């Protein structure tokens, strides 16, 4: 019904669609005749979304569609027609429903001050009439319209009503000094980024499925946009980045660049000659992230949130290795965000990668990444504002701690993994370094051996990774606890194996699910260990544990140093108490108290 063309007495049309994200369908400059505009509308694809972020659509209109140079003409009436069948719903977002509605109203007010008329049309019974009228220009009776269904919308009466009202509007005289814009909720969130302290590592898929290097550049531009709102510095945010396809490649590490400008320049200089394409070996990327990306030996900081942002456009090439790498990732203290791009993304894989379901994002293509920039940024900033995970409850304590873990046949593979997870959770509460707490691990059954000694690893991430790699020894049928205690006493705390001696506390955390095969030899071995100054915590798991057997292994008083739980899954229930008592033992020994 419009006279569309490039002339000053003709109309131009642009279109934007929105749900969870925003899609720019076409702008004022894209099509200059009616046939092309109608074809473009017919080619608009339906993109299902889980939320109704009306404010994002309105923001895109006033910031981009009507931006200088994008086809808006001075002296020509500007009209925006908003169609919706719901009300603003931010969905999984740090913005509340009430804030979302306020934001929608604010964004509509910005459009009106362009200046532009805003027609708001609500379809169906699910619309919020107050919100529709708030979006519309005044008088709202003229600029808002409500219809029962989309069938009713597609009638000549409604079309003529809208067209008549559009054609009757007069040019608006723009105010010489528009009122100052109110502070938006997301602007308040952005301020949080200046208080953020975190180590953030980006892991970007550059496999062949991206088709052209221009799509890779769009991914890099997205990362750059997110980084641009960080405040980088020694006590603020540090950023690292890698790309991956057949093999992962570290672009820069956490301590390589000190400013956003340096990172921006580096990314800008990347060109198509450096892009090799390849498959999607996600497992290799995750392992490099754990080995070097977020590692204290490569710039990450203790007591600071460790955040990974993983962007991928397809399914992991090696599913089995991917599952194994994800299991190792879960044993870390990383906060992981997963972003799936394009039609080949796999939601089940994204959920496994992410540390929380609210940390999963999906977009239809690389062009749409910009639509989630703000939401991702807010969540990153909030994570950085939060206290770090409780990895340091032994602050200031020094100790040499050795886990002594039962690997006999009675445990089983599943329970052994629970034992490893428990050890990981306890270690997360230690400050691990050569000058703080050192950690070693002994496993036992028929025989006993060191998985790693006190001097093997110098930081927490390395210890956590080492624990995750420990294999369950299925062939060990018996429970020779005495052999484990003898190895602990004779070699565990020696200088050769990393023990520091002197006043540094020597602590053992022994975990078993059965009665020792040789109870008398175990009693003698435990007594010898205590005489050597080793503080022994004994943890019994399951129905076959005898409290007397535990007590003969534990230091005294037994009620302080022995624990019993129903099964390995229940080990987490004593994590806090064990950690507290371990730290108390470490601090008291440092102060000269004698334990046995």
Characterise the protein shown here.
By secondary structure, this protein is α/β, with parallel strands linked by helices. The chain has helices at residues 34-42, 54-65, 97-112, 129-135, 140-143, 150-153, 156-168, 185-192, 213-227, 260-268, 282-293, 319-330, 347-353, 373-385, 413-427, 460-468, 481-492, 519-531, 547-553, 558-561, 575-590, and strands spanning 15-18, 22-26, 79-84, 117-123, 144-147, 198-205, 237-244, 249-252, 306-312, 335-341, 360-363, 399-406, 437-444, 448-452, 506-512, 534-541, 562-565. Helix content is 36%, strand content 17%. A six-stranded mixed sheet has the order 8-7-6-9-10-11, sandwiched between helices. A hairpin with a 3-residue loop joins strand 1 and strand 2. Helix 2 (54-65) packs parallel to helix 3, helix 9 packs antiparallel against helix 10 (260-268) and helix 15 runs antiparallel to helix 16 (460-468).
Could you write a compact summary of the structure shown?
The chain is built from 21 helices and 17 strands.
What is the distance, rounded to the nearest whole angstrom, between the alpha carbons of the first and last residues?
A: 92 Å
Strand order of the biggest β-sheet:
8-7-6-9-10-11
Tally the structural domains.
3
Radius of gyration: 31 Å
Report mean pLDDT, rounded to a whole number. Answer: 84
CATH topology of the largest domain: Rossmann fold
Using DSSP, what is the number of strands? Answer: 17
Strand percent estimate: 15-25%
In which range does the helix fraction lie? Answer: 25-40%
